[in-house]
Amino acid sequence: MMIFASDLDKTLIYSKKSMKETLSEDELVPVEENGGAFTSFMTQSALSWLTLITQVASFIPVTTRTISQYRRVFQFSKNVNVKYAVTSNGGNILVDGEPDQEWCEHVRLAVESSASREEIKMMYDEISSPEWALRGWLCDDLFYTMIIDPDKTPLEILDQFRSKLLAQGWVLSIQGRKVYLVPERITKGDALLYLKERIGATYIAASGDSLLDESLLKVANYAISPRHGELYALYGDSHHYRFTESSGIRASEELLEWVHRGFLEHKSQLISSR
């Protein structure tokens, strides 16, 4: 059994604002609906590559989105066979659309070693200012999403805050206008390892663009990241991760083509070794 585990936003699916180029309507496939409007898209080519991948591997969406936000992505339930999904940055695992209670209990026990949500929110309020910290909310009772004004945000203050958070067992990730505050013990990688053992997988390919995806990439046999993401900004081409040549929505086509090629090569190696 082989797994393709991938982040969603700015890795596989894109809002029109995050595409980095204007595509014709014929090139785009709506994948998410919110409030009666289509809000995220894939290219026709990317969806075709993903469909080919599902013929040789199990596709597992892995996202920081909450359960309700993930359920807005209708395309996967409509045209792509998805039995397992990881949401809430690894805090929840969905099996046939419903939370896995064994994993929920594991997460509950894991976060007890970190500072409480209330302490972290208090720390953030102390360093933030209404000039750049616009609003925020608690997601699935697990972590915070904070909206900022990137042009007015003093990044040096957030960098210092990141170090303080680590001492409290929490991590900080900046993705455009969003700042995520997440318990260190809740990771996409740990959730994927749980699923790997559950379904008996032997090979994992993974993709993701942000620091919150790094735990996912680290547990994979093959990892690829879009060039436009937080990981590329941090590591550049010097890191051992493969980065796409393309940026924006075209990066999804490139990484899916590479993943499909990697699965076929791995399958061929298995056959030749018998």
UniProtKB/TrEMBL annotation:
GO molecular function: catalytic activity
SUPFAM superfamilies assigned: HAD-like
Sucrose phosphatase-like domain ranges (all copies): 3-222
Domain of life of the organism encoding this protein: Bacteria
InterPro entries in alphabetical order: HAD-like_sf (IPR036412), HAD_sf (IPR023214), SPP-like_dom (IPR006380), TPP-like (IPR024197)
One Pfam family it belongs to: S6PP
Protein name per the record: Hydroxymethylpyrimidine pyrophosphatase
